[in-house]
Write a structure and sequence with these properties.
The longest helix is centred in the first third of the chain and has 25 residues. Helix 2 crosses helix 13 and helix 9 packs across helix 10. The chain has a six-stranded parallel sheet. The chain is 48% helix and 9% strand. It has 424 residues and is α/β, with parallel strands linked by helices. It is globular, with a radius of gyration of 22 Å. Strand 2, helix 4 and strand 3 form a beta-alpha-beta unit. The protein has one domain: TIM Barrel. The structure holds manganese (II) ion. The site of manganese (II) ion has 5 residues, from loops. The site of manganese (II) ion (MN) has 5 residues, from loops.
């Protein structure tokens, strides 16, 4: 299914007066609004191929209908999101789930939907059929060199597939670690992982980056070989200039100050990319901005400040991706909500009065510092984000139009009620 341009235009016309009124007010309040709109229009968020179907937990999975059955259908789903919001213009693939034989056809299909390929993701946390060695006790860290070699070769194969599609980054997330004290030697596990990553790094093409993602716990519950940002930064620094840390918001211990982590990684030139989601307790993979919208704003506040300090282009300097799971919502509606929350936090961060904040910080005027930040956070920027979306050809209210056009019902009619997306 594709949404026709006239359907979006008709919807926008219906919303016209209300939007004109609300945006007019926002424009009168913020003289720099056109600059903000330009930045919002350029900002694109990558959608992971594994988030288009219903997720599940270890207790079960309750499939929805009309889930994509192939890589082609996943790209079509992201195309639908991008038609509606015009800021989901990238796809992040996961190998082997998204392996294709026909790269040209996939590239053509993505181009048709206005999508590019963001970071490729390797998978050494599951055993695949006909695989020689098991990853039960780790992959790149494994005590057996043959297992490490198999995992290295898989990552190099993912790079090869990414090159064929025009991607320029590899994300490595490892489930490696230990479940019990004494199970492994921390230094040996680190060294094995580093040596394995060095071999993968050596296979990166000139323009490519490697993102080392960290995670505090799960599936291993005692130690994780890339457990936090410090460990990821150690690997990234030892590997070289193409290696960066990737921050997944759900991969920290409770109450970690993620905005401070982000700020320091940017300072070191080692922040490569982002996986957006939200959480209440652990790696809950909930809709971005659904639990802690103020934290999301504070993270964007540091991102904008840090990128500007380094002269990094907001839209292209880092990999912006969602990594979420949808257990009880329609995955496409959930993704529309996540993208919207990210755009709102970004717009609010762009509104922060930086000069006033610098002065207040310099003068140790703590109350004023808070006032400056919260002035931006408490500004209703929905009409600004909506205006950017309308100007780029998207829908004023994406979820409302999604429902009015009965997109899910159409997908069920096309694909069936009992479909299960490939992936987790
Ligand atoms: Mn992630």
């Amino acid at each position: 299914m594709e949404i026709e341009k006239y359907q979006i235009a008709a919807h926008n016309q219906q919303q016209g007066n209300e939007q004109k009124h609300r945006f007019g007010f926002a424009a009168s309040e913020h003289p720099q609004i056109e600059n903000i709109i330009d930045q919002l229009i350029k900002f694109q968020i990558g959608i992971p191929s594994w988030a288009l179907g219903t997720g599940g937990t270890r207790f079960g999975r309750f499939s929805g209908g009309g889930e994509p059955r192939s890589l082609e259908e996943k790209i079509e789903d992201i195309g639908l999101l991008h038609q509606l919001n015009q800021c989901s213009g990238a796809v992040s693939l996961h190998i082997p789930w998204d392996t294709t034989q026909d790269y040209e056809a996939i590239k053509k299909l993505a181009k048709h939907h206005g999508l590019r390929f963001d970071a490729m993701n390797s998978n050494t946390f599951q055993d695949q059929p006909n695989q020689a060695y098991s990853y039960k006790f780790g992959s790149l860290q494994h005590t057996n060199k043959a297992v490490r070699k198999q995992a290295i070769e898989h990552n190099i194969e993912v790079i090869r597939q990414g090159v064929a599609l025009g991607s320029e980054a590899l994300t490595v997330w490892l489930a490696d670690g230990s479940c019990f004290p004494g199970q492994l030697n921390f230094r040996k596990a680190f060294q094995n992982t580093l040596e394995s990553l060095e071999e993968i790094y050596a296979a990166l093409p000139a323009q490519w980056k490697i993102f080392v993602e960290y995670k505090a716990f799960e599936p291993n519950f005692y130690s994780t070989t890339v457990g936090d940002w410090g460990q990821s930064l150690l690997y990234a620094n030892k590997l070289g200039p193409k290696a960066y840390t990737l921050v997944d918001l759900g991969h920290h211990l409770p109450n970690a100050n993620i905005e401070q982590i982000v700020s320091l990684l940017l300072m070191e030139g080692k922040l490569g990319g982002f996986h957006f989601n939200d959480s209440k307790y652990g790696d809950d993979d909930l809709t971005a901005g659904s639990m802690k919208p103020y934290q999301l704003f504070l993270i964007f506040n540091e991102l904008v400040e840090g990128m500007d300090a380094k002269g990094i282009d907001h839209a292209t300097g880092l990999g912006w991706m969602i990594d979420a799971s949808h257990n009880v919502k329609d995955p496409l509606e959930d993704l529309l909500q996540s993208v919207e929350a990210i755009m709102l936090a970004y717009a609010q961060a762009l509104l922060v009065d930086r000069k006033a904040l610098v002065i207040a910080q310099q003068e140790n005027d703590v109350a004023r510092c808070q006032e400056v930040l919260q002035q931006a956070f408490r500004t209703d920027v929905r009409a600004i984000v909506q205006e950017a979306r309308i100007r780029s050809g998207g829908a004023a209210k994406p979820i409302q139009l999604y429902r009015e056009l009965k997109v899910r019902e159409n997908l069920i009619a096309e694909r069936g009620m009992k479909t299960i997306a490939i992936g987790l």
